[in-house]
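can u pls check wat happens w/ pyridoxal-5'-phosphate
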Amino acid sequence: MPFDLNSLLRPNIRVLTPYSSARHEFSGEASVFLDANENSLGSPLPQAFHRYPDPNQTALKIEIGRLKGIDPEQIFLGNGSDEAIDLLYRMCCDPGDSALICPPTYGMYSVSAAIHATELICVPLLEDFNLDIPAILAAIRPKTKLLFICSPNNPSGNSMKEMDIRTLLEAFNGLVVVDEAYIDFSTQPSWIGQLERYPNLVVLQTFSKAWGLAGLRVGMAFASREFMSVINKVKAPYNLSDAVQQLVLDALKNKGQVKQSTFVLLSERDRLEQEFAAIPCVLQVYPSDANFLLLKVTDAKAIYRYLVEKGIVVRDRSNVKLCDNCLRITVGTPEENTVLLERMRQYGA
Ligand SMILES: *Cc1c(COP(=O)(O)O)cnc(C)c1O
């Protein structure tokens, strides 16, 4: 069956007429703008924020397109990846439809499903945190619209196997969403390069991790032009502020800094991995393609509380499927990591 995006859309979205803003309707040259009820006299701020921002984020998409090697028309930008996740549900899922996730994984897929009254099908990862392909294929139902794959996965840190993702892209007629929030820390290639081949592929990335811009809230989705024509209808017209668009454009001029900090984080991840392995309360260090490590420890809750007492906050994941007695620890600065290691060595001593 050839992929048909229209058949996945909620019927009301299929026929939606989008809001047409003043900035959409006029695109020529002019010097007097009296079309959007803005304040032509300015604002209390020194920056010129009195005009509505570009709803299409054209300048920013051109730069991101250059960075990622993709047509700017295949880029969606939103208020974090979380906006893209929410919009996927809003585009496709009526109550009664379902989405499939593979826990343990990122929490927003299930929160968004609950918000949209979408049924959630959970097919746990295997013991080694790889995808259980036969179980996934068996669990897909006619009304399954979305399949979320997080690679590298949060909280396990591993990348999913290329062949497994390919199998799902070929066998599933809904949207396969590959969340690559941590791709910059991985040696695996991005799935962006496969978009021409798979019309049902949506790739998510973010400025929150390797780019260090979590506070700005900027996420990216990459997909077919047809997908973009729909998501752009559904998003809020001015979903990225002018301040954010300008700041990300500035950040993109400084790629060298990101390369450098990524290099430091990766070498620190290696150091932590090695040194954790020699600490008595650490039973296992899972291999990571991300900027964090998942550790199996002797007593996660006790060690979590002990670290908090010392002023160090990590993430207790011991209540999560397959993560019994596991802590997820973000790679910090070299100094922070040294303090963490020292405290961990002292635990129980
Ligand atoms: C951190 C993270 C994100 C990023 O979300 P933003 O809303 O862009 O900050 C997305 N997916 C996963 C799996 C994450 O861990």
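The first strand starts at residue 75 and ends at 78.
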